[in-house]
Design a protein that fits this description.
With 228 residues, the chain is an alpha/beta fold. 41% of the residues lie in helices and 12% in strands.
């Protein structure tokens, strides 16, 4: 029998509506959550955004090229602190303890100001593997990981990772021994999570910069693991 546990935290639906700027209530339907390009019907906010863009284009106030360029610049300018935070935790035991004790305060030391009141860093070990989800929408530590990917926002991922996390992880190429407990953590409007993966063997003596280069968004959500 495989080991799988789920960590849930009570939350009111109003908590999510109070933070509309950080939630995408879209219902992408994807047969494979690892496929970011398999998009389903657009959600309410995406439809509104498209309509507003089309209206501004019709009035000659903006062009499609300007919108595309601005999105490219936004992605380039967006601060991605997650890899740096985890790399610091790998090389600095004292910082790692502060991160696990108070994630928000530890991230602030590195210039990452989070939008949520709390950040809980959960550490992977040989016995436990952590995975992050937001079952109601797409709560996500954007200051650390950038914009949430399509698969994270999809109804497919949000429902399946709770009930069959090992199957979902396998679709991302992550297969865990039956002896490893899988813990699924549910984010909400006031609380975000960050997975601290296990440092790969063979990276002894590596600099923080080089270690950070090993880390990706998916690893810090918990659907993949770092490898040398």
């Amino acid at each position: 029998m495989t080991n799988t546990t789920h960590d849930y935290y009570a939350r009111k639906s109003s908590d999510h509506h109070d933070h509309d700027h950080d939630h995408d209530h879209d219902d992408h339907k994807q047969p494979n959550p690892a496929n970011e390009h398999d998009n389903g019907p657009p959600g309410e906010y995406e439809i509104m955004s498209r309509a507003m863009q089309e209206l501004l284009e019709q009035k000659g106030m903006i062009t499609a090229a300007q919108v595309a360029k601005r999105m490219e610049l936004f992605d380039e300018e967006f601060p991605y602190h997650g890899a740096q935070v985890v790399a610091r935790a790998w090389v600095d035991p004292a910082f790692k303890q502060r991160l696990l004790a108070d994630g928000r305060a530890a991230c602030a030391e590195m210039g990452a100001m989070l939008e949520a009141e709390r950040l809980i860093a959960v550490e992977n070990t040989p016995e436990v593997h952590n995975v992050i989800v937001c079952t109601l929408c797409s709560c996500y530590p954007r200051a650390l990981l950038g914009m949430p990917p399509t698969w994270y926002k999809s109804r497919n991922y949000r429902s399946r990772v709770v009930f069959e996390p090992r199957a979902v992880l396998k679709e991302f190429g992550t297969e865990l021994p039956d002896s490893v407990t899988v813990r699924v953590h549910d984010s909400n409007a006031d609380m975000r999570y960050l997975v601290v993966p296990m440092r790969p063997q063979g990276t002894e003596g590596w600099s923080e910069v080089k270690l950070a280069g090993l880390l990706s968004r998916d690893m810090l959500v918990g659907v993949t693991v770092p490898k040398v």
